[in-house]
From TrEMBL:
Record organism: Terrihabitans rhizophilus
Enzyme nomenclature, EC number: 5.4.99.9
Molecular functions per Gene Ontology: UDP-galactopyranose mutase activity
Family stated for the protein in its record: Belongs to the UDP-galactopyranose/dTDP-fucopyranose mutase family.
Top enzyme class: isomerase
UniProt keyword Transcription, yes or no: no
Cofactor: FAD
Key words of the record: FAD, Flavoprotein, Isomerase
Positions of the UDP-galactopyranose mutase C-terminal domain: 147-343
InterPro entries linked to this entry: UDP-GALP_mutase, UDP-GalPyranose_mutase_C
Domain of life the protein comes from: Bacteria
Protein name per its UniProtKB record: UDP-galactopyranose mutase
């Protein structure tokens, strides 16, 4: 008999499993249909001895000291500031767009102040910024939008940026200085020994049992548990009652080359050419030294494991129907990117999981006796 069954051994499920076991002494069963823990952040050493990410690059960054310090219980860190180049017009230039990007592409020698005016001359007025296209053309104009964003977004999401919510491209800033870091967060680090080791430490508790290659649908009526935390697709939980929520998938081509380095930074984006969106070289992330190098070519797809909820208005409306069902489902907590249909970063999922734990504590205060029953079900939105 378990106090909790947690479906999914990624960030949401693992963070909650550790909190429930450590802080409350609850007995927790974590299941995952994959043959490993860590969800999409799973990393492993390949045949060349390179620590690589099975599901594409995962770069940890956050402005939350609380989230950083929480995860620091389970890993040491190595400082790492992520840098990305984009191949545009046959030249590798920094992305997000900055002063060097514009000067290199156009053969200019602008200062930061001059670049502000240069952007302003090209920016198109938009009455109401609703879409990803609106975000970009209102800041830097249509030409840079076409060069950097339109093709990449169409490959990544399968739809034009004019059909996507503004949140997608709003994630990528535009800079007038020479800052070529992809993120601006206070904490930018990588787990020193990898994400999988961090998850192993998180789940290493006598009250936590992990079952891999286990499908929830096959065991949901076979295992005794009091309450459920679900981190998978919410539409799947409800047997697609209102139809399938659209998710974007990915496929990966992992290659090892007999050369020390392949590219100057960890990730190179291809907004204008190629079927793949980006190429990742992992030694930049891990700091490993090797005469060989491992790369991942990333291909977006409509079919396959769900990775990204697609932020469009009609999808949000469909999700609201499932959200209403979730609120009527007692003793089930929905947490994570797929269960709450939100395009969260890793740190945001950790924050959501910690917030959900606090709500669990309020709803089911732990006493020497059995935890209180009958609390209202809720979504774990933090």
């Amino acid at each position: 008999m378990f106090d909790w069954l947690i479906v999914g051994a990624g960030f949401a499920g693992s963070v909650l499993a550790e909190r429930l076991a450590t802080e409350r002494g609850d007995k927790v069963l974590v299941i995952d249909r994959r043959p490993h823990i860590g969800g999409n952040a799973y990393d492993r050493y390949d045949d060349a001895g390179i620590l690589m990410h099975q599901y594409g690059p995962h770069i940890f960054h956050t402005n939350s000291r609380q989230i950083f310090e929480h995860l620091s219980q389970f890993t040491e860190w190595r400082p790492y500031e992520h840098k990305v180049l984009a191949e545009v017009d046959g030249v590798l230039v920094p992305i997000p767009i900055n002063l060097d990007t514009v000067n290199t592409l156009y053969g200019l020698d602008l200062t930061s102040e001059e670049l502000e005016a240069w952007f302003a001359e090209r920016a198109e007025p938009v009455d109401e910024i609703r879409t990803s296209e609106d975000v970009v053309v209102s800041k830097v104009g249509r030409e840079l939008y076409e060069k950097f964003f339109r093709g990449y977004t169409r490959k990544q999401w399968g739809v034009d940026p004019s059909e996507l919510d503004k949140s997608v491209t709003a994630r990528v800033p535009t800079r007038t200085n020479r800052d070529d870091r992809y993120f601006g967060d206070e904490f930018q680090v990588m787990p020193l020994h990898g994400y999988t080791r961090m998850f192993e430490n998180m789940l290493n508790h006598p009250n936590i049992k992990v079952m891999l290659q286990t499908d929830f649908a096959e065991i949901r009526d076979e295992i005794a548990y009091d309450r459920l935390i679900f981190t998978g697709p919410i539409d799947e939980f409800f047997d697609f009652r209102f139809g399938k929520l659209p998710y974007r998938s990915l496929s990966f081509d992992h290659q090892t080359l007999d050369t020390e380095w392949h590219q100057p930074v960890a990730v190179v984006n291809y907004p204008q050419t190629q079927d793949y969106t980006r190429v990742t070289e992992y030694k930049h992330l891990t700091g490993q030294q090797s005469a060989r190098t491992t790369l991942t070519y990333e291909y977006p797809a409509d079919v396959g494991d769900p990775y990204y909820p697609i932020p469009r208005p009609e999808n949000a409306e469909l999700f609201k129907k499932y959200e209403a069902l979730a609120k009527e489902t007692p003793d089930v907590w929905f947490v994570g990117r797929l269960a709450t249909y939100r395009y969260y970063n890793m740190d945001q999922v950790v924050g959501q999981a910690l917030a959900t734990f606090r709500r669990i504590e309020e709803a089911h205060p732990k006493t020497p006796a059995v935890a209180v029953n009958g609390a209202a079900p809720r979504l774990g939105v933090g």
